[in-house]
Predict the structure.
Amino acid sequence: MSAFVKAKLKTCREALGKKEYERARDTALAVLEYEPDNYNAHVFLGLAQLNMRELEQSEQAYRKAIAIEPDQLLAWQGLSRFYEETRGEWHERVKVFERLAQLHAKANDAAKCAESIQKIIEIRRDTEHGTRPELADALALLLPGSPFYPLLSSLPPPDPTNPTSTTIYLVQTAIHNTLPLSEEIVLIHEREEEMIIQREVSNRRQRLGAPPAEQIQRDVALEVISRSKLPGLYNEVLNHPNTSDELRRETELKLLRMKQLHLFSVDSKHKAEKARLAEEVEDLINGIILLKIPVEFAWSLKIESQDAARIEDYDFGTLRQFIDLFPLSPLAQLLRAYFKYMSVPLQEDGDEGAASGDEEDVMDQLDIMTEAFNSLNDSILAHRIIAELYEQESDYENAMKVSESGFELVRRVEQNWGRPLKQVRKAFNVILATSLVHYFPPKHHVRALRILDELLGEDPENIPALMGRGFVLQYAKKWSRAAAIFATVANLDPEGVDHGLRAKEEHAWSEAMCGNLQAAEVELRDVIDVLDGLEGRDDDKARGWWRLGRCCWEMGDDHRDQAYKHFVAALKRSPAFAPAFTSLGIYYSEFASPPDPNRASKCFQKAFELDPREAEAARRLAEGFADEGEWDLVDVVARRTIEGEGGLEDGPETKASRRYLPINAWAWKAVGAVELARRNYPPAVEAYQIALRTDINDHMSWLRLGEAYSKAGRYAAALKALEHAHLLAPEDWVAPYFIGEVHRQMGVYEEAIKSFESILETRPEELGVLHSLGQSYLDMGRVELATGFSSRAEASYVSAIRLTLELINASPGFRRVAWKTTADALFQLSISSIYSDAESVQEVVSMVTPLVTEHPGKGLADVLTYPLNNDDSTNLPLLCLQVALAAYDYRLALGGLNDTAKGTAHYDLGAALSVFARRTLDSAKREKADQEAIAQFKHALRLEPMNDAFWVALGNATFLTQPSLCQHSYIRALEIDGKNAATWTNLGMFYLKCEDAELANEAFYKAQTLDPDYALAWVGQGLVATINEHHRDASALFEHVTSLTAAVPEADLEYATRLFNAVNGSSKSRAASSEALLPAFFVLDRYCRQRPRDASALHLFGLVCERVGHVELGIEMVARAITVLEAAYEETEDPIIERQFTTAHVNIARLRLAVGDYDDALESYQVATGLLPDQPAEGEPAFDSDTRALLAQCQFGSGLAHFKPGQLSEALPLFEAALATAGADAIIRGHVVVLLAQTLWAIGTDEAKESAKTQLLQSIEYDPENLMAINTLAGMGILTDDDGLVDAALSELLSLPLDQRHERDPERDVTYLLIQHHLGQGDAQQALLVAQKAVHAEPERTDVRRKLAALPLQMGDSAAALAVIGSTAHTRADLGELRASLALNAVALCLEAGELASDALELAQKGVMLSPWDRQAWETLAYVRSKATQ
């Protein structure tokens, strides 16, 4: 170091001493400029800057000094002072003190080292500057394992009397007694690890796909314990000389728990580690047990981890010590009670713990063990004890449950300790197998055999396993093999009074079952002699005597009395031995002379009461109860029998396919029969399914199963079951009968009829089949009528009547149901207006009429006229209805009906009377019929008040006459069945009649919600919309009704009427109107088929046919309407009907004109004219509008009928008369004027032509909107090349705005006339200009575009035509427009060269396919083909 540096450093030190920090700083900086690595200069600079509060520069200076000399104290001390004064960077401050401690330790300065460590601990104790683990690490610096401990241990002991004499008193105290310090560190680590485990387990359980909670707990515990410092700390506490006994025990327990948790957390794959940890845990446990330390956890681990073959193999000394140390623990209570129960002394040198042998005391011990066991879910020993007790007490179900729980505990212990418990597992297997053998045998024998095979594979001489296998073979009727096994057991345990004696008994019984009765008798007597010498064991004694009796019974009749004595002896040994009662019952019923059925029945009842497994007694009881009709008792016996064999063990909800194969199939059949009689069809189905699992070829069970399926509504399953039954017994007719019934219920009536007819071919006397056949025809007729096949329905009804008449003649027992079917068929026939085979209908009506009119009680005398007249066939439907009424009345007169059937009979009669009231023309009979119908409905409701259909019928009957009763009836019906859409609709109609549209709409909306396909609800809403003047919505609703599957004729008619009026009131073109009326055409066709005598509908249908082009069909429909109206007028002479008749003649005359039938048209006009008045009514100045219109049309049409054939002279006066009749009626007058002008023009003279023009001009002047007159006048001008006339005719129309012009000219006739006018003058360009303007005005109209396209095509410019047409023919959705465009497009394409010719042919063919009746389409195709061949 140079003199300059030394001088400067001296000056700097002096400045610091004088607190001249700025001068000291500058001096230090000067030194560093000369010598940058000068250690002291950096230290002085740091100190000066610290005092000048240049903190950042001060820290940098100290850091640079440390970097130059890391092992020098001065800079480290300065840096520690810096952190103390700034009170920041606590972690850095700790590091500084740690480095100072190391440097002081290196310098062997114990005091300074202790001061640094003490400061570290003080910092870490402040919770703001350190965590708990960091505090533990700081405290650990004072433990023996610390590198500082050797130096610190040289510190003198602390002076408790003067703790302030040194600055390191705390360190001195800790060094000379580390136990409190160790305890504090242990506490910190315990809390920290506990928090870590809780936090990690909680986090991992929230992850997707997380393993089970137990596995997560193990994994986290293993991770924490593997790096835990607690085991070493525990050992340090244990090894410390100052540790108290209490602390030592507590610490040992903590260490044991940690080791145990570590052991249980390690995976079984790591066998070496597992074994090491297990050894450590066992050492800890053995030490605790050796010293008899009362740590229950350790004792429990020791006891539960033992692998003992028997309970006696557990160390009873250890168990006694456990009881003494922990007398209140559940396991100690259980063990104490077990020792008393088994008469094991509680003290090694005494017998004070032995049980008294008193039965009450034994039961008390059992109760204590059972109660204690509830708190020992994790104890293997407790499970073994309880399982064995349950087995001994023959509580096999609980023995099985406890054993299975024990297996789970064994698995868990094996996994935890990493070693197998073979003997414990074997013991549980023995208990489980034995319980499975005896629990509802042989239900669980398959499972038991698997366990027994496993046991015998390991130990072929295992006596309980051999006994179990022998019992299994006995239940399987393999008596010889069972006898061999029991003989083996008897040899293995010849002196045993438990297994050995029982094996001898079972060997004798097996020999008896093999037929070796003499040897079996001798052996059984030996067994009985031994048993009688033993105390207790009453059941075993009774069983031996009973079996001896059975051997004697099987020896023949000579030994039956001896057998009887043995049975009695068995009951003397045990009065509760059920098999002896069964055998006695058989003796009394079959062998006693005379037989004593009463005593036999009592014996059977007693046997069954004692043991429901006595199947023979149960079967005989059930048969006896069935013979007496006691079906409830049959059900009780059958169900208890099923319960006795374990059939209900899996619960009532278990599927039949998953149930055990039943032993007593008869019990399940009995249950099925009872449930079928009770109409509980699903349980009946299940019962028969289970019964069939025993005998798959039981024909009767299949038959009953099919019957139950059909009545439960499962028709597909019913058919399969019944077909199988028929396959098993083809000669039995019952299965085909049920098959037919199922088909009838499914609506497959053809198949049902085939089945019934096939039975009647071989068994014609089966009247029930005949009735079902008739009912099938009736049901099929209803379906056929609903689907529109009226002729088929008629034939079905006739067949139903014929068959039921056969039934009535064959047996009076079926008369009531037969008359029901007959009346229903006649009622259905009365619905039709016309018949396809009226003779057959007349024939069956004449057959029924005498039968229903000859009975004495004629309750309908005021409604029907007796005797009924069969000869009057003018109104056959009404006659059918009258005979149906008489048949319903006759059915009631027969009597003998229950309340339900009688209520239905009254309802049927009331419904028929309501229909009769609507159809009869006799007002007196109508009133009587209405009153009688209401009375019948009331009778029905008195008998069956909860039938909503009866209430609805009463509401319908009182709809018009008694509104209060009507409303009450509908609401009452809705209270019974609030989900009936028809009832809600009826209520809505009622509210509509009462003019409450809001309530009506709500009711209709409810009906639609319940059944969206119920048509009448939509009709009702349409009516509501009409009342509210929402006509567009109403039309849409009626249109929707016509699209539903269930047709409503009234809705069809209403929709068609509305559509016809709407089209008539629109300005659509003729083609568009025709397309728009097609839906009306179809619905009216459907309506007229259903209501062929509705004149209004027929008339409307004729008018619609006229508009859509089916004129011939229109003539036919109007002619039918005229026929109906004529018949109605002859009966009533109603003037309204007369006017309808007149209007129909006018319309049919017009239609005949359209087809060229001028003579018939004139005839119809003459008829109509004859019905119309010649002069206005007296006092009236003129005809009313309807009469004037009809008369003018008659005159106008008659003139046209003369004009068309060329009879102009006859036509002209008629037109003039029509013109005079029309008067001020502009529409009629306009038509007449045009026809008059055309007639005058056709005369051909100049005078006549001028007169025609004058007439038209006057008409236009009178009615400027008469477009027909304008067009006709323009046409005359074109024909005569009179431009002035053309301009005069069209000028006013052309001057109108475009929208008004189009409104007056929907067919665009003016455009057509102008084009033709210019073409006639040879001015094609002007014609083209007119067409172009029309297209510009309406570019969307294809008809206008076609007119424009036709002009260049005529001029040979096919390309221009194609450009105008474009893709119109392909894109228009309107089928009519598509047809019209195809021909023009095809012609234009065929004129183009190249590949377009094939496209033209395709379009032409498409036009023919769409309109095969159109001549132009065929001509177009021919033209295109001719062009293609050129």
Remarks:
- Confidence is low (pLDDT under 50) at residues 352-357, 1367-1373.
